[in-house]
Amino acid sequence: MSTDFNWWLLVVGVVVGGALTWLVLADSRRREDELAEEELTAEAGWIARILNDPAMDTDQVDRVLRAHRRYLGFTPPDTLVDPASLEALEQRHEASGDPGAAEDGGVGGDPGTLAGEEPGSAAQRGARS
Prior knowledge:
The protein has 129 residues and is mostly helical. Among the domains are: 43 residues; 39 residues, no CATH class. Helices cover 64% and strands 0% of the residues. α2 packs across α3. The radius of gyration is 25 Å and the shape is elongated.
């Protein structure tokens, strides 16, 4: 009886140990917010070298990485907007003389709200899509 119990404990121990190991190692990738400012500059230099494009220097890549970091800090949008329709919407607001469109690039305070829309209309727009 004791031998059967020992085998059972061994099997349970191996399964639990494997599960704990998987939990510890499963999500070991680094995240954007774990990068220091110095490392961001070094990453920009590495990307510029890897791309091997004379038009892309370290400063341009650094600006793109910093813009990407700011973008990740925004709340997720309610809907995704086609850039062509966003440009057409911005042009309509510029033609109508809407001062809000020129000040903030056509996007209201809420990232999901387009310029000139009432708050909450982004949710209605998402429901129609």
